[in-house]
Design goal:
By secondary structure, this protein is α+β, with helices and mostly antiparallel strands. The chain has a single domain, classed as Beta Polymerase, domain 2 (2-Layer Sandwich). It is globular and about 40 Å long. 27% of the residues are buried.
C-alpha cells in the first residue's frame, strides 16, 4: 500500500503543464475551448493569493452528464494538441462534476443542479478574511 506522500506525488498534476506557458495565455485558450465545447455559464475566479492550488479556477456547466464528460474530454484533447501535456481529470465516470487540473488553472464542469448545490463561485469569490488580530 503506498504511503500518503507517494499517493500525493502520483496524483499531483505534472509541473510542466503550465510552467512553460503563461497561465494568462492558457486561461484565454481554455475559455475559448470551453466556448467551442458549448459550456454554459463560464465563470473565471482569480485565486492567486487565496490559495496555493493555482492561479485561476473556472466553473462551467454542461447540459447533461454526457455533455459534461464531452467538455472535459475536449479540453484534454485541446491541451494535448496545443503541447500543454496531459491534464489530470477526476470525476469522469459519473460526469456530475468533472475536475480538469492543469496545474495553475483548474476547471470544474458541472451539471447545473450539482453546480447549484456546491456553489463553488460563492465560496471562492468571497474575500479572504483579514489577518487575525493578536491580543
Amino acid at each position: 500500500m503506498p504511503s500518503a506522500h507517494e499517493g500525493a506525488r502520483k496524483s499531483a498534476p505534472p509541473a510542466e503543464l503550465v510552467s512553460s506557458h503563461e497561465s494568462e495565455a492558457l486561461l484565454a485558450q481554455v475559455r475559448s475551448w470551453l466556448d467551442d465545447a458549448k459550456a454554459e455559464n463560464v465563470v473565471v475566479i482569480d485565486i492567486k493569493g487565496k490559495s496555493s492550488i493555482g492561479d485561476y479556477m473556472l466553473v462551467a456547466s454542461g447540459r447533461s452528464d454526457r455533455h459534461v464528460g464531452a467538455i472535459a474530454e475536449q479540453l484534454q484533447q485541446k491541451l494535448k494538441e496545443g503541447g500543454y501535456g496531459r491534464a489530470r481529470i477526476e470525476g469522469r465516470p459519473q460526469c456530475d462534476w468533472v475536475l480538469v487540473d492543469m496545474g495553475d488553472i483548474i476547471v470544474h464542469v458541472f451539471r447545473p443542479e450539482v453546480r447549484e448545490f456546491y456553489n463553488l463561485e460563492k465560496m471562492w469569490s468571497a474575500e479572504r478574511p483579514g489577518d487575525p488580530t493578536t491580543h
